[in-house]
Amino acid sequence: MTGPNGAQAKIEVQNLNAWFRNNHALRGVSLAVPANTVLAIIGPSGCGKSTFVRCINRMHELVPGAHQSGHILVDGQDLHGRGVDPVDLRRRVGMVFQRANPFPTMSIVDNVVAGLKLNGIGGNHAELAERSLQQAALWDEVKDRLHHSALSLSGGQQQRLCIARAIAVGPEVLLMDEPASALDPIATAKIEELIRELREHLTIIIVTHNMQQAARVSDATAFFYLGELVEHGPTEQIFTNPKESRTEDYVTGKFG
Amino acid sequence: MAVKKHTDRTYEGELEELRSKLLTLGGKVEAEIAQSMRALSERDSKLAELVVGSDREVNLLELEVDESCRRLLALRQPAASDLRFITTALKIVVDLERIGDLAVNIAERAIDLNQSPPLRPVHDLTRLAQLCQAQVRKALDAFVDADVDKAQAVIKDDDLLDALYHNLFNELLALMMEDPRNIRRANSLLFVAKHLERLGDHATNVAEMVVYMVRGTDVRHPHSRENTGQP
After folding, report:
1. CA atoms of A164 and A112, how far apart (whole Å)
2. Which helix (H) or strand (E) holds A205?
3. Fewest beta carbons within 10 Å, which of A2, A122, A165, B125?
4. Does pLDDT of A87 surpass 80?
5. What pTM was estimated for this model as a whole?
6. What is the CA radius of gyration of chain A?
7. Which domains does chain A have, with CATH numbers?
8. Residue contact A215–B8, C-beta within 8 A
9. Does the pLDDT of residue A115 top 90, yes or no?
10. Residues of chain B found within 8 Å of residue A211, distances taken between Cβ atoms
């Protein structure tokens, strides 16, 4: 599958099905994500949004009784192909969760470099940490207390610390599962601005139940319902003139 | 298939109220056109004065529609068809209010003309008035029924209206050249014709917005889009 200008898509999902034992959570999902774009995934609770992103960094298979079929390609390479190391994959495809989860016993700077150490990445860790914290728009707020506990930060700052940790290891893709749903509007705005900046170097998929957030930050939006991909298109089109009536009903609040 | 309603009943009610206000406004200006043309043809200055007086209600309705739209945009973050409906409302309320103003202008001309003896009947004026009224009615029907075919018929018939106006212009010019004593009255009728032609343009604007509201496609200014690569 190629993008609009003929370039290969960064991420390509082909007929993905996923199960939790007998629960068919994702049904025949296919889509492509061009490099350096933001894809928002929207849909009601239980529609398969989180399951979908967890397939992309092979976290789905870690759940007992979970299985899947279909193909997921990153830069044309099948994630389940021979020679693909899941641990290295999760470095290339980073993830940020709904609840910030900094390593509680570590300092701010140690949190950022933890991934570097775990992945055996050499180089000047202090410099790499500073760069990641700069990229996560957190450096100015923490530069004078790098050795303080990560838990001394506010919720929004902890989330940006987790983003710094994820990007320190040099990922190409960042998956974000409702990254701002626990944050106040100002912290949310900072995360959204960060997403816009990160887009220059990364490809981002963000799951969100907040439609206005999807409208603000993404280039394309995919609407999931009951495990199916109902519609996928440019964000402006999804929110002004969607093609599917189910999408129309969801974005206008006629669902249920 | 039942039309789906918004889960939020209050929101559903607010949208319905906006629709209802627009339709009331449309109905009022439609009536104003009919009354002003009757005031002209039947030389009824009292009726004309009623039309002038009814402008106040039309203006107040415009203010209410704008206020409702602003409120909905601020508080509801509307999307898709709701967004298209509200932005359409913001635009067509201007056209409807202007239609009302033009009907008032016609009524004022009638009051002026009724103070002089009548000119001989000008048939094209009646035909132009009938066509303009029909355009306004059809555009409002298209809005009520969310009917793109009706809207496109209005857009198409605007050419007919323009052609009628040009014929009428020539007819009135001939009247003026026939006898200088006709000039003042024929000139007033020319103004009426111009008001009707402008009124027809506003009906076309409404129809174009209805197409956008239903389809999400902006069909305005097709000639300006040529050679720009815009769809």
Report:
1. 6
2. strand A203-207
3. A122
4. yes
5. 0.88
6. 18
7. 11-251 (3.40.50.300)
8. no
9. no
10. 77, 79
CA distance B151 to B194: 23
The DSSP bridge partners found for residue A228 are A225
Reported as a single tens digit per residue, the pLDDT across B87-144 is 999 999 999 999 999 999 999 999 999 999 999 888 789 999 999 999 999 999 999 9
* Cross-chain Cβ contact A253/B83 below 8 Å: no
Domains and CATH numbers, chain B: 10-222 (1.20.58.220)
Residues in chain B: 231
A252 contact residues in B (CB cutoff 8 A): 6, 78-82
Spatial separation of the C-alpha atoms in residues B95 and B204, rounded to whole Å: 9
Which two tokens mark B185? 């009255």
Do B95 and B160 form a contact (C-beta atoms < 8 A)? Answer: no
The whole-angstrom distance between residue A96's C-alpha and the CA centroid of its chain comes to 6
Q: What's the CA gap between B139 and A118, in Å, rounded?
A: 68
A8-62 confidence digits (pLDDT tens)? 899 999 999 999 999 999 999 999 999 999 999 999 999 999 999 999 999 999 9
Nearest to B80 by CA among A231, A212, A239: A239
Residue B212: CB atoms within 10 A of its CB come to: 19
User: Percent of chain A beyond pLDDT 90?
Assistant: 87
What length does chain A have?
A: 256
